[in-house]
Structure formats: structure tokens, C-alpha cells
Amino acid sequence: MSKRTDLSSILVIGSGPIVIGQACEFDYSGTQACRVLRREGYRVTLVNSNPATIMTDPEFADRTYLEPLTPESVLSVIERERPDALLPTIGGQTGLNVSVALAESGDLDRMGVELIGASIETIHRAEDRSGFKEAMTKAGLDVPRAGIAHTLEEALQLGHQLGFPVIVRPSFTLGGGGSGFASSHGELEGLARRSLEASPVSEVLVEESIAGWKEFELEVMRDHADNAVIVCSIENVDPMGVHTGDSVTVAPQQTLTDREYQAMRDDAIACLRAIGVETGGSNVQFAVDPQTGRRVLIEMNPRVSRSSALASKATGFPIAKIAALLAVGYRLDEIRNDITGATPASFEPTLDYVVVKIPRFAFEKFPEADARLTSTMKSVGEVMAIGGTFKEAWGKAWRGLERSGADLGATYATAHDDVLGALRDGTEWRFHLMDRAFAAGHSVDEVAAASAIDPWFVDQLAQVFERAEGLAGATAPSVGRETLLGAKRVGLSDARIARATGSTERAIRDRRDQFGVAPVFKSVDTCGGEFPARTPYLYSTYDEESEVEPASRPRVVILGAGPNRIGQGIEFDYACVHAAFALEVAGFESVMVNSNPETVSTDYDTSSRLYFEPLSAEDVVAVCRAERPAGVIAQFGGQTPLELARTLQDAGFPILGTSPDAIDLAEDRGRFAELLREMDIPAPPHGEARTIDEARIVARRIGYPVVVRPSYVLGGRAMEIVYDDDELETFVRTAAEASRAHPVLVDRFLEGAIEVDVDAVCDGVDVFIGAVMEHIEEAGVHSGDSSCQIPPATLSDEELDRIEDITRRLARRIGVVGLLNLQLAVKDEKIWVLEANPRASRTVPFVSKVIGVSLAKVATLVLAGRTLAELAADDVLPADPGHYRRLPFTAVKAAVLPFGRFPGVDTVLGPEMRSTGEVMGIDADPGAALAKAMVAAGHALPTSGTVFVSVANRDKRAIVFPAKRLADLGFALLATTGTAGVLRRAGIPVEPVAKVSEAPQTGAESGPRSGRESGTRNVAELIRAGRIDLVINTPFGRGPRTDGYHIRTAAAAAGV
Amino acid sequence: MTAPAALLALEDGTVFRGSGFGAEGESFGEAVFNTGMAGYQEVLTDPSYAGQIVTMTAPQQGNYGMHADQAESGAIQVAAFAVTEASRRSSSPRADSTLPEALLAAGVVAIEGIDTRKLTRRIREVGAMRAAVSTRDLDPTSLVARVRETGGMAGADLARTVTTAAPYEAGALVGPADRARGRVWRIAAFDFGIKRNILRMLAAAGLDATVFPAETPAADVAAGGFDGVLLSNGPGDPAATSYGVAAVRELLGRLPLFGICLGHQLLGLALGGRTFKMPFGHRGVNQPVRDTRTGEVRITSHNHGFAVDPAGWERDPDGTVRTAFGRVEVSHRNLNDDTIEGLRCLDVPAFSVQYHPEAAPGPHDAAGLFPEFRELIEQQTGSGGSSSELASGSPRMEGP
Ligand SMILES: Nc1ncnc2c1ncn2[C@@H]1O[C@H](COP(=O)(O)OP(=O)(O)O)[C@@H](O)[C@H]1O
Ligand SMILES: Nc1ncnc2c1ncn2[C@@H]1O[C@H](COP(=O)(O)OP(=O)(O)O)[C@@H](O)[C@H]1O
Ligand SMILES: [Mg+2]
Ligand SMILES: [Mg+2]
To answer: Residue A213 CA: which ligand 1 atom is closest?
Structure first.
């Protein structure tokens, strides 16, 4: 064995909050790495600021620091822990960048810490786009023509040299941030400026555009003895020009000949050697000209990546785990393949199925954003599906996407009357448009040419389309066995068949049952069936032989959370994983069902059995039929499984814990309001309206401001606060017009209220309060976007007692067994209930970490039949019922928002959630805890410089004291005229600047110092010029034409 | 045109119902599975698959069509082809035909729409079986009964059926040998079912091959003034390929030898070893093989159902084998099941590998064996300083 024995402790760096381009795949990789390193006997120290991760649970590392991922804070951990080595390659770009900073500052050398897995030279060669090109050319590999620019002039010159169109990509960014295409001098000017700003080193690569070529990725592992294997090939269905993260991708590659593929394999390995990746996993990206077959190398990442998480799930080859073992000296042939148990890891997995990944977008949350798919990644999550063929996997992936109204086959309207033209635009709806094109009689070749998608894929989709068309005219009672089987084999969902036959999903399922048309389950075994698989990792397919083994213990099915989206992310995976662990302890076999490849729950060794399946009714029912579970847990995966609970119960599978009817009681706003009234618990007055007139009457009765939302959407979608009749009218017209069938819900908006979250577990009798969290932002900012803290900052014990009391009463009355999340608002001494969620909430991991009790575990044990009294007796619960109020520290959770990705999107927070992830700061001092959370979220506040203030009239009084304090601390203040007037009257030195809507002033009013400049340029320009360090703005109205909007978007773009 | 119904029957009685997508008719052979994901064209045209009904574990085949320049021989060699789904359309604009078109033109029977993983698992559990694919006999009982009447692969001498009728110059097929390495050496290649890529790789290593029919007597080759001999891959039971074993025995020690696959098995037999039929063989492009001298692991391309038996010889304590031709070491091992993957004679110039260094399909990890063969020739023929040294150090042996 070549394992290193000269190391005893290793520091692992996580990836921090979830942002676009860097999601929970790094929790998965970090968890794997920490686990295996500990198993190998190393002492593992972990730094990660993201509390929603499994890896930051106490059992995964010897020491865990929930600290910001900045060089300073990691250095202080190093000083404390004195590790022998640092593993920089499993924490995404963030982990890599922090490690590079520490290596370059000499701190690692000084502290005697060795970088393992990748050397600093290697990282540089791979990450620095010019160094990379040079190394590749030297190794004889083909790359697109390009040049490096550090100034706008250089960039423009390169554009002309290379010939338009060109692509511009900043160095050291992730997810294609700041990149884009330019097809003229004018376009390049704007793009290059933005791109230079986006690069931390002001360096961009200007490159010939090869948009439209085919894009591929290979996942390569190499050990220190130079053994190299390709774990997986991934083909992008979308052409070059659409970021891989936003592309639909397929594994294994489908359209290259063996000769082309092997040549690509040679290049990938040559690339690793040239870059000097000695051990570990890397991702190498290629483009292939579809006409000539010419192949060029695009980039490589010398670390575990989003694609490697996908590759791990697609193949059963645990890349992160093996990368960690290679980093500590093992060779590939010394590591066993867990799945077969008999063969070594030095092999290339072979797939006897097809895997499709589809990204999930959230453009509806950012209506002003450009919805075209480009080289900048915009998706917020992804779903993966495994099928017997591409078509089957394709259909499964689309239904796994859980995008209501947007499943494939739904008619999609386009403004273009020219479908092919619309296809060229390449939006999220490109595949819906393809069906329209087929329907209009366009050929596979025409569609392929318009979309730049390989004709093989287009033909596959045409086959699916033909099947779906073939159903038209059939009716549910008449559709025959062969037709049904044929439809299922090409991946058509029951829902789509139902739509085509004018029937219901349920009726189609019954019809299938009648004919015995049901899927079988097959294993993912890394070897195409050559060796028996020991690990039950299964997927469904319409074929002959099923491979589900009988179980020795009773099984419990856990329904996962599906793809990450805004509002439902890694937090829910956290709860599911804990449920799996707890079930094992309680003597059950845990059966996980999930479709999100980025997660720990879809790791084959998290649960006893893993079904990689969409969380849709037909698929989940099929799993339950195969497993015959003792019960199903639907309350941990967020909203998704909750909506499946009733279907499963009707299909004869017991839901553990809170019953579907109780779920409905809490979820149905009408029933819930009624319940609150009966129980005499205050709730904001509310009403429903179907027309503008009705809305006006309801709003007047309730009193402005009001919160309005269309009733059919969940998760704070399309919610708005309106202050008067005009705004109300606009809302009803624009947001709610679309669905006359659904009323608009109107609630009294509690202005200036403190928002409170509670997470609790109820066993039907007793209630355990995990914690009451106090939000820092007022109610009106979605709970997912606001910061909150434990212990509560300003709530009195008496108020907390009342909140706890309401929680207890409601839990019992609703009939909660398991987890309950309650959202309340405190205003004028009164406690109002906003909503109750009878399930795991976003804050479960945060609370669990803060109080040191895993709420998901407690809830799982309750679902398995234990009582809270028993758990208290076993010391699973803290003895002090008010434990969370008396912590020796304060913990703050803060949200991370994706505005930097969506230029032009208004950044005002509101009742619609838009954050992608969260961080936690913890400190004995509440102020320091908040500051840490802010730093971790990437919003380090400046400690000196210029502050710009512009607030709405209603806030002008409130700003006086903070402004004075800032002035006292030495900040220079700028303000818009109205605000400046108020501040001046209060005796605070301030300088007025022009709003964007005001004509530029000519220096007449200019003050002595920076006055000339600030007088002649409006505020947005000043922000873009980097003259302003902090912006304080409270909005008045929302919309692209307001000044506030210009100020905020400029600030977001400039990272202020 | 609707596809005809088709059956695939195994000798253990398992029957699969699907639809035909190549020629109509029926074909008998040994059912085997290949786990490579791309490379169907190379598989179909590899003469080592003669007499076999091949199923691919990867579900979709034919995606990029068929390309004339990527064939491994002049014909489709398999007895029949069985897949989950065949492509009706090719991705590549450079394709010459689709897969179904090529099979139809070649008159090869093919079946799609069957559970190929079930078929693979049957073969894994029971072993490679006699089988049939038919679009004519759709009665399972009858087809199974007829399968049971056919002969199996053990004892089958198939090289004779696929070899060239007359000697030919490889250059005519794959172009002239590369002169970049200096002198071009002339070698004789025994065609037991040779793949074209072996000829391409030889040419790239500056080795100009003349290809001989399988049953060419050793004396003819020895008299041809060649600098080395290549023993090719091929189908069937090596033990039944007795003429090949005899030829190798005669040439061992006279000329540098390089054996691939069947050629490796023939070398093993000529050295006095034994071969055996594996339960279901190795067919795929992902087999890890360790070089026992360097420890290096290569991912290699495989296609064999027989192997050299490690228990076939007496061994020295250090593992080397004593043979009539001097000492022999096991140079390569399969890391999955420890089977013998390579032999190297220490006292005569000969070596062989069970896997396919020419790949096609598969990774190029072992491509270095062709230049290694060239070096062996250079050492032997005394060009370059080292050859005389080696020649004097290991006297040539005349055979038993
Ligand atoms: N020369 C190019 N022409 C056209 N598109 C390109 C080019 N280079 C990169 N792209 C596109 O931009 C995307 C992002 O580029 P990449 O270098 O992979 O950056 P990232 O670090 O964000 O992954 C790629 O996935 C590809 O679709
Ligand atoms: N009546 C109200 N007064 C003040 N704020 C409210 C009111 N109703 C909802 N909100 C705000 O809107 C956010 C989202 O509303 P909520 O009902 O929790 O929807 P969701 O289902 O998206 O969680 C809350 O977190 C809160 O900040
Ligand atoms: Mg990339
Ligand atoms: Mg809420």
C-alpha cells in the first residue's frame, strides 16, 4: 500500500453557500472526502460556512469550523489546528481560490502545511486561461485561437485580430460569470468592460467563437503512479455557447465514434499530464466541429466539479471519495470498487443505460433577466434521470424537473410566428419549441440546423413526438396494451398520455395496471452486468427483468426533495439524509427516492437502497410497489413529497407521521385561517378576490398595505406588497390575469413587524421546540431571504412563551406527528400566525447545528414510533426546555442572493424568495456573529469610504441616527436631494448627487472636494466607477423605470 | 415498412422476443456480451467474433452510423447482433450508411427491443451459451430445440474460416509503413482473423507486414527473409488451432514473435502450457491490466473466451515458468480476475498479450507494444548496438 503515513491531520475546505454555478454537489463531495479520510485514520478539520450541509455535521469531521471561507479566517483555523496538509480540491472554486491565496501569501509554508491533491503550480496552469492555452499548445493539443487582455483597448484589438464573433471570459470566476459573446466592435466594448470588472485579476480571455459546435466533458482520475482512467464521458445536447451548467447533458456520450472518443480520451489524459495533476479527479471540456470532426480543448478544472458529481451518480464511481484517497497516496489499483466489491477502482465504468441531466431555471423570479442561455450559467439546480434509452431517460428527467405547467408536451406559446427563428434564440423553452416545429412539419434536419443540436438527438425527440402524436384520438378506455407500452418505453409520462387522451393520470395508471404495463428496476453497477452488484442502486425502466432483492428488515421509503430550486434546496436533502441514518438505527432499511445528482442523499451508501427516480406520482408509486414499505416519509423533502402524500395513501401505502388530511389542513390557506379563528389565534385579516373591483373592496376592508398573491402558486411565488389601489390594479392585471379561475389572495400586510420562525417536533402528544428564531429583516422579506438569529435578539421571555404556546397548541390541533415549522409576526405586542408548514423547513439544519440536536433525527425516531418522552429520557433531547434561549453564543443565518448573475434585475427583497443559499456566523458576541455571516455571504461591510444614502420618505426619519453614526466613524456621505435635505437638517455633513432621472448638474451646486465629480455624474455612474463603497437604499415602488432600480442594479453589478 | 418479429433463444431455454432490424433469416452461434459503449462497427467487423451472436450492454447502437474507413475487416463477421435499440438515423454527416442498412446489406440477422441486461446476466450466470436469432422460426420451443442441436465453441477451429485465402501486402490495405523511425522492417503476420488496426499500428511503428493465411507452414515464413512474426487475433478454440501452435513452435527462437489474443494463446500452447474456456470471457474496453514488471495499470480492449491456464506449467519459486524454450514470465495480469494477460520469454525473443494493444475499439494505453516489438526486432537483427549483446547473451534455440 502506498498510503501516506507521514500525514496525520488534514484540513478540508468546503465551498460555502450555494450560489449559481456552485451548488450542493460540493456538500456531496466534501462529505465523501471527510468520511473516507477519517476512516483512513486521519484527523480531519473542516471549514465551511454553510450550515445546511451534511458535511458540517459533527460526525463527519474531528473538528468543524462554521467560519467564513476567506483566507483570514481559514488561516486562523490553521493556526489553531496545525494540520499537516490541506485538501483544496473538493470545495469547488471557492475552496480552490482560498487555498491558492493561502499558498501564495506564504502562510501555508510558514505553518508547514502541505497542499495535497493539487500543487499550486498545477492550479495556476489550469486556472489561468493564458497559461493553460500555452501548456496545451506545448502538449500538442488543439485549442481555439485566443488572446489575453488586461485593458479594454487590448480586448478590442484582439476582437479585430480574431474576427467576430468572439467570446470573452474572465479569469478566476465560476459558472461563466461575466462572460459573453460579441459580434461587433460595439458589443465587445460593453462586454469586455463588464468582463474585466468581473475578473478579480482584471484579466479576460478573448477567443474565437465556436458557438454551435458539439460540447463534451470527460471526468478523469489520475494517481501518483500515472495511472489514469476516464470515469465518465458527458455529451452536451446543447451546443457550445450554452454553458455546460445550463445545458441538457447526456452520459455516456452518444454521437462520437470510438475512434473520435478514444482520441478525445488521449487528449484528456495528455492534458492532465501537461497541467501536472498528479492525483485526483479533473474535468476536461472539449468542443467538436460537427462538420469536420475537428476537436479542440476548452478548459479543465483540476478539482472535483459539478460535472464530477453528475458523473459519480451516473456511473456509481465515487469520484470525490477516490480523489481523497489518491491525495493521501493510494493508487487506483489499491482501491476497491465498492459496487462490485470484487474489482479495483482502476477501470472505466461502463453504462448499460442512458443518463440525462436537465437544469432547472428560475427566470420567473427574475422577470427582468435576459432569458437566453449563454456562456454565463443561470440555472439554479438540476435533475438527473436514468433510463433504458435516451428517450426514456429524457422523459423521466422532464417529469423529475417538477416544473408545473412546463412539463414536456405542454403547449408553449411563442411570440415568434417563425418557430425555427424562435429555436435559434435558445431559451429554456427550446425543446418545447421543437415539438411545435415538428408539429408544423419541419424536418429533423431543419430543426437540427436551427437549434444547432445534433440531428441524432433531434431525431430521438422526433420519435418521442411521433409516439405522442400517435396517441391523439385514442381515449383512455380504448388505448391498447401495445400502444401504452410503446408510449412508456419512449418515456412518455402518465400525465402526458393523459393529456393526449383527454384523461387523468390516475386513469392511465389504472389502465396500465389492467394490462400489467409496469416498469422494472435495474441496478447501476459500473460494469454493464459483468459482475454482480452488491450495492442496491436502482432505476426504473420499461423492460423485462427486475433486480430488486428481497429485504431482511422492514423498509421505510424516504421521499427526497428533487432538483434544487429557489425555495427548496440542500436543507431538505439534509433532513432526508438524517432520516436515512436514523432509520438504520431504529432497525429499518431506509429506501431513498430522489432525482437530484448534487446531493448526499443520492450517494449509494447513505441509505440501504437508493432509487434514482423522479419524484412524480407514477414513479414513486412504482417504487413503493416494488418495496412494499412499512411506511413512507413525505415530510422531509420539502413541498414536493408533501404533494405526493395523498396519492401514495390512496395507492395503499401508509404515510408515516402527519396524515395527508392534516397536511391539507395546514396547507390550505382557507382551512387554516378557519382553524386559527376557532382557536382564537390572531392572523392577518384576509380575503379573496376574482376581479379588480372585488380586490379593491377586499383591500379597503382589510386596509392598505396588503400582501397579494395568486392562490395557485406556492413558495411565495408572485407575491407582492401593495400600498394603494393603483398598485393593486397593476398586480391583479399583470400577475393574476393569466388565471381567471384562481382567485387572488389578499392579506393585511403587517408593516414593521418582527418575523419569527419556529421549528418543532410533535409526537401527537408532546411538542419539542427546537428553537424560536428572530428575523433581522422585518416581515415582508421572505423568510428564506432574511437573516435570522438564535437566541432571539429582542423578544422577551414572555413573548417567547406565548410563541411556544401557540406552536404547541397548533401542532396538536393540526395533528402533526413529526416536524412542524411555524412562521409568525410580532407587532404591537400581538403575535400573528402567518403560516404553518407540517414538514421539515429550510431552517432545520441551522437549528440542529445551533442547539446540537438533530431535529430530523428526532422526528424520524418519532415517525418510527418513539415518543418524545422516551427520547428525553434517553437524553436525545436537552433537559432544559428553553435551551435555545440560553446559548453561550449567538448564531446568525444569512441568505445569499444571485443578483450578480442577472444584470438588470431589481435587488429589492420582498415576499417572493430569491436567494439560492445561506451561510451561518457564530460568535459569543451577537454583532460579531452577524458580521461573520455577512462576510461568509460575500457582503463584507466596508470599514471606511463613501456611503450613498437614498431612502423612501417613510424611512427618512429612521435613517438619521444610522447616518450620523456612519459620519462619526469617518465615512463620507452622499445622498439624493430629498434625503440629503433631511440629513443636513439633522446637522450631518452630506453631499447631494443627481438621481439618474435628474438632468446632470453642471457643477453649480458642487461642494469643495469630490464635488465636481459627484455633481456631474449621476449616482449610477458613480457606483459603476467604483466611487461608492456602501449603498443604503429603501425602495419606493418597484419597476424598471424608478431611480431606485437604477441605483440598485448598478450596485449589484459593481458588487457594492 | 414494419419491422419483422424476431426471437433470440438460448440453450438454457431462455427466449427473448423483439423485432428484426437487419437481414431476415436466422443464425446460430455462441451468445456473448460486449460492455464497450461505443465501437459497434469495430466489433461487428472484428473476425474474432466469427460464430458469435453479440449483444452490446450499452443500449443504443448505430448512433453515429457506419464509416467505411473504420472497419476492422472487409465484412461484418458476427453471426448475429442483439441490441436494445438500433438507430434509424446517424449523427455524423460523414457516415456512409446506417447500422440497419449495413447489416441488411451484409445479410446479417439482428434483433432489437430485447432486455439485453437480462441476456447479459444470463450469460454471466450460466456462461456463454449456444444461441440463435431468427425472424423465421418464431416458436420458442422449436428454436431452443434447434439451438441445442448445434455444436459449441469448445473444440471449434474457426481461424481457417476467416483467414485470407492468399498472402497479401498490408501496405496495399493500410498504406506504406512509416519511415520516421528509420529503417522499415519486414514482418510476417499470421492471419488467424487479423484486425486491420493491427496492420495500421504495425505500419505506424515502421513495420511492413506481409499477411499470410492461417495454415501457412512455418517453413514458408522462415524462408521469406522476414525480421519478425506477428501472431494475430482470431476466433475459436486455440487448442483446436493446431496448425498455428505447430508453426509457432517452429518459429520460436528463430524470429522475434509478437502474439495478440489468439496469437497469445497459441504462444502459450507452443510453450507447453494449456488453455481453457472461460465461463463468459472478457469482451469490452475497460479491463484493467497490470504490467507485472513496472506495476503500471493499463485500461485495455478485450475480446476473448479462452485464456492461458496459469496452472498449466511448473513454476520456479520466483514465479517464472520453465519451458522447452527457456524461462517465461507472466508479464501482465488482469486486475479483475487475475487471469494471465501477457507472457514474455526471457531466453528467446517472443512476447504476447491476451488483450488488444491495437484497441479499435478501446483505449490506446497499450499502443506502445508495437514500438516495443520493433525494438525487439532491432535487438535481434543486430542493428543498433544492443542486439549483438542480447544475441550472445541468449543463444537461439532450435526448438524441441
Ligand atoms: N470559444 C468558445 N466559443 C463558443 N462558446 C464557448 C467558447 N468557449 C467556451 N464557450 C462556452 O462557454 C461555456 C463556459 O466556458 P468555460 O470555459 O467552460 O467556463 P466555466 O469556467 O464557467 O466552466 C462553455 O460551457 C461553452 O458552452
Ligand atoms: N400578512 C403579512 N404581513 C407581513 N409579512 C407577510 C405577511 N404574509 C407573508 N409575509 C411575508 O411574506 C413571506 C412569505 O410568506 P409565506 O406565507 O411564508 O409564504 P411561503 O409559502 O412562500 O413561505 C413571509 O416570510 C413574510 O416575510
Ligand atoms: Mg466549463
Ligand atoms: Mg413561509
So the answer is: 4
The CA distances from residue B102 to A257, B65, B136, in Å, are 16, 9, 20
Among B8, B14, B86, which residue's Cα sits nearest to residue B44?
Answer: B86
Q: What is the pLDDT of residues B230-283, one digit of tens each?
A: 999 999 999 999 999 999 999 999 999 999 999 999 999 999 999 999 999 999
* Alpha-carbon torsion (B377, B382, B385, B387), positive or negative: positive
* 8 A C-beta contact, residue A556 and residue A632: yes
Three cell numbers, residue B152: 459449441
CA distance A763 to B113: 51
How high is the pLDDT of residue A329?
95
pLDDT digits (tens, 9 = 90+) for A694-719: 889 999 999 999 998 876 555 556 78
Q: Which residues of B touch A254 (CB under 8 A)?
A: 60, 63, 91
Beta bridge partners of A288: A214, A295
Verify cis geometry, omega within 30 degrees of 0, for the bond prior to A791: yes
**Pairing label, strands A537-541, A520-523:** antiparallel
Q: The cell 476582437 sits on which residue?
A: A159
If one counts every other C-beta atom within 10 angstroms of the C-beta of residue A207, the result is 22
Q: Which tens digits make up the pLDDT trace of A14-26?
A: 998 888 888 888 9
DSSP secondary structure letter of residue B50:
B
CB A237 within 8 A of CB A357: no
Q: Is A571 helix (H, G, I), strand (E, B) or coil?
A: helix
Q: What percent of chain B has pLDDT over 70?
A: 95
User: In the predicted model, is pLDDT for residue A943 greater than 80?
Assistant: no
Strands B109-112 and B80-83: parallel
So what's the pLDDT on residue B392?
35
Question: Is the minimum distance from the CB of A685 to ligand 2 under 6 angstroms?
Answer: no
Indicate the helix (H) or strand (E) that contains A486.
helix A481-489
Other CB atoms within 10 A of residue B102 CB: 23
How many angstroms separate the Cα of B31 from the Cα of each of A352, B40, B112, B155, B262? 17, 16, 15, 16, 19
Quick count: other Cβ atoms within 10 Å of Cβ A80? 11
Does A605 score more than 50 pLDDT?
Answer: yes
**Between the ranges A953-962, A1004-1013, B224-233, where is the mean pLDDT highest?**
B224-233
Cβ atoms of B54 and B82 within 8 Å: the answer is yes
Angle, helix A797-814 to helix A660-667, in steps of 10 degrees? 130
Give residue B323's Cα distance to chain centre: 25
ipTM score of complex: 0.95
In the prediction, which pLDDT does A1048 show? 61
Q: Which atom of ligand 1 is nearest to the CA of A375?
A: 12
Q: With contacts defined as CB-CB under 8 Å, which chain B residues touch A224? A: none
Residue indicated by cell numbers 429555436:
A423
Q: Answer yes or no: B345 catalytic.
A: no
Name the residue of chain B whose CA is nearest to A256's CA: B64
pLDDT at residue A1007 is higher than 90: no
Residue A1004 pLDDT more than 90?
no
Of the residues A231, A288, A352, A444, the best mutation for testing chain B's interface (the one with the most B CB atoms within 10 Å of its CB) is: A352
CA distance B313 to chain A (A): 26
Q: Is the pLDDT of residue A347 over 50?
A: yes
* C-alpha cell read off for B212: 499470410
Cis peptide before B361 (omega within 30 of 0): yes
d(C-alpha A851, C-alpha B391), whole Å: 79
Kindly write down the DSSP assignment for every residue of A270-286, as one continuous string: HHHHHHT--SEEEEEEE
Beta-carbon contacts of B337 under 8 Å, excluding residues fewer than 6 positions away, are none
CA distance to A143, A603, A946, per residue, from A525 (Å):
36, 13, 60
pLDDT at residue A645, rounded to an integer: 94
Q: Beta-carbon neighbour count of residue A395 at 10 Å?
A: 29
Distance CA A992, CA A1010 (A): 11
CA A249 to CA A852: how far, in whole Å? 40
